[in-house]
Known about the structure:
By secondary structure, this protein is an alpha+beta fold. The protein folds into 3 domains: 49-72 and 271-419, Efflux pump adaptor protein, beta barrel domain (Elongation Factor Tu (Ef-tu), domain 3, Beta Barrel), CATH 2.40.30.170; 82-110 and 236-267, CATH 2.40.50.100; 111-234, Helix Hairpins (Orthogonal Bundle), CATH 1.10.287. 37% of the residues lie in helices and 33% in strands. It has 4 helices and 21 strands. It has helices at 9-39, 111-171, 177-234, 280-283; strands at 45-47, 54-56, 58-74, 77-81, 86-91, 98-99, 104-109, 237-239, 244-248, 256-257, 262-267, 272-279, 291-295, 300-308, 316-323, 336-353, 363-370, 375-386, 390-395, 402-404, 416-419. The strands form 3 sheets. It has a 6-stranded antiparallel barrel with strand order 3-12-15-14-13-16. Helix 2 (111-171) packs antiparallel against helix 3 (177-234). The longest helix has 61 residues, at 111-171. The protein is elongated and about 205 Å long.
Amino acid sequence: MAMDRTRDPAIKKRKQVRRIALGVIGVAAVLAVTVAIYSMEPAAYPVDRQAVWTGKVERGEMLRRVRGPGTLVPEEVRWIPARTEGRVETIRTKPGVSVEPDTVILELVNPELEQELEDAHLALASANADAENLRAQLSSDLLEREALLARVRADLESARLQTDADAELQKEGLIPEINYKRSQLQSNQLEEQLKIEQQRYEKAREGVEAQLAARRSQVAQQQALYQLRQSQLASLKVRAGIHGVLQEVPVEVGQQVQPGDTLARVAQPETLMAELQIPETQAKDVTVGQPAQIDTRNGVIDGSVIRVDPAVQNGYVQVDVDLEGELPKGARPDLSVDGTIEIERLDDVLYVARPAYGEAGSRIQLFKIVGDGDEAVRVDVGLGRASVNTIEVVSGLQEGDEVILSDPSAWDGHDRLKLK
């Protein structure tokens, strides 16, 4: 039986060293590959260059504007209300027709009003007759007062003459002193009576004026009522009142209307203005006097802001623009338009075309085109003041940089794009 040979310890040790070395080399290789993989940049996301919208950052003057839709409306519009109750008997003028102030648009009927007019006429005639009778009666009474005053005045003059005569006779002793004193007493009594009659006459004359004034007031009331009924009856023929174009007749033949109901609308189409609806986020910078341009789709009209509504409705603020110059052909009331208002001019600023998203004063992320124009990387960009088509660049970009302005939501999770 063969005996086992003892292995050389050196050989065994060399094998162990070789195995350890191979293991270390293997681990190092795995680590190297892992580090290389993690250090590699992720592959760029492929994007069709023709499918994206780009813009270059520029430096210079930026014109800030806001834009909003609107309509052309007449500066002068007359809403014609019903002045009295009535029934629409006939419509004589149709919307769209040019009218003059005396043009009859429609006619109403109201039989009760005709009777009220007749009653008012009779009441006025009666009031005039009563006033005339009162004036005649008061004049007669005043004449009697004047006659009485004249008699007392005449009696006083006669008594004074008698007193003077008795004074002379009494001095010569031809009549007793008692006769003279009686004459003097009668004269004094007549003087007092004359004063009283004069006061009565003045009071009577003042009373006449007061009573006649009260009666004239009653006559005036009846006259006003009669004129009101006449005016109401005349208003049954509804007239335009101004030169212009009849725009609307919101009633029908046979319809019963009440005072205050709208019967027609007349506008002057020669003088139009624009009512724009500006988003409330942009309207805060709009002020009266700013220049504007109104696009009627058949021409552009210059104008200026004349009013900014202080209220917000459904997220919009109404801005009225006065139009300057000749209106383009086809400009008419209720025509839909687009308006642009110039807010301010910014000198020597960085700006770019407005991206698909991003508000003024916000920070967003855009893809900046780099290299030979075949790649784009995501960058943080600070935005400043905004206009309709442009926005100020505060940070993150430089003049000449080209960026993708399209909506980047489809590339979320990617920091690099490969443009092909």
